[in-house]
Amino acid sequence: MIAKRIIPCLDVAAGRVKKGVNFVNLTDVGDPVAIAAAYQQQGADELVFLDIAATNEHRQTMAAMVEKVSAQVFMPLTIGGGISSVADMQRILRAGADKTAINSAAVADPALITAGAEKFGNQCIVVAIDTAWDPASQSYRVYTHGGQQATPLDAVAWAKRAVQLGAGELLVTSMDRDGTKAGFDDRLYQALGAAVNVPIIASGGAGKLADFVDVFEQTPVDGALAASVFHFGELTIGDVKRTLKERGVVVR
């Protein structure tokens, strides 16, 4: 059985790690290089690094910071934010990333998924999906530009198309749960798991140990991503892994 992954996320703006609630009201957390090194010591399986202001500021992800982080940590790094071309992907991979995450650019130009997968392999292409429940349509709607722009896309349908185009993994964030510590949106990940056959990373809502247990026992996700509970020392990676092992969930 493939081990489930516990993945801290560093949302970065202006060279600092930030954390908010529902994608707004950002609070400064600290230096990304130091925080990344601390998570490696805790036993994190991977690290997701998102330059959350890059797309809205119409600039590229900061490769220099990626180089600094990759020099300090030796776990897989997924880097996203402001990546809008195959050249951007190549630059980030050369800087030390193992995978590139694309969101707004993939929605704007779905062919970018295929182009990246053909050049670097599906395993390097993560399609990030930010989504929120839409009561009017009774479905999950896709958002871009750091959650600021709604699209007409249904999240499950978009996930299926992204995989068909070459995405090797999906990083799916529930905007409704982001930063709330109310638990992962298990209904969302159940629907996605039934629709696609690539690894899915659940993001948004982790608040207590039971939330990690629930998302792995109730849905087919391959990894659980969290920020606030790890950044502010409410939980450690070790806490989560010990609890999961006690429940029979396979972890590294």
TrEMBL record:
GO terms for biological process: L-histidine biosynthetic process. It is found in: Cytoplasm. The keyword Cytoplasm applies. Its EC number is 4.3.2.10. GO terms for cellular component: cytoplasm. Keywords: Amino-acid biosynthesis, Cytoplasm, Histidine biosynthesis, Lyase. It is an enzyme of class 4 (lyase). It catalyses: 5-[(5-phospho-1-deoxy-D-ribulos-1-ylimino)methylamino]-1-(5-phospho-beta-D-ribosyl)imidazole-4-carboxamide + L-glutamine = D-erythro-1-(imidazol-4-yl)glycerol 3-phosphate + 5-amino-1-(5-phospho-beta-D-ribosyl)imidazole-4-carboxamide + L-glutamate + H(+). InterPro entries: Aldolase_TIM, His_biosynth, HisF, IGPS_HisA/HisF, RibuloseP-bd_barrel. Signal peptide: none annotated. Pfam families: His_biosynth. PANTHER family: IMIDAZOLE GLYCEROL PHOSPHATE SYNTHASE HISHF (PTHR21235:SF2), IMIDAZOLE GLYCEROL PHOSPHATE SYNTHASE SUBUNIT HISF/H IGP SYNTHASE SUBUNIT HISF/H (PTHR21235). Belongs to the HisA/HisF family. This is Imidazole glycerol phosphate synthase subunit HisF. It comes from Lactiplantibacillus garii. The lineage of its organism: Bacteria, Bacillati, Bacillota, Bacilli, Lactobacillales.
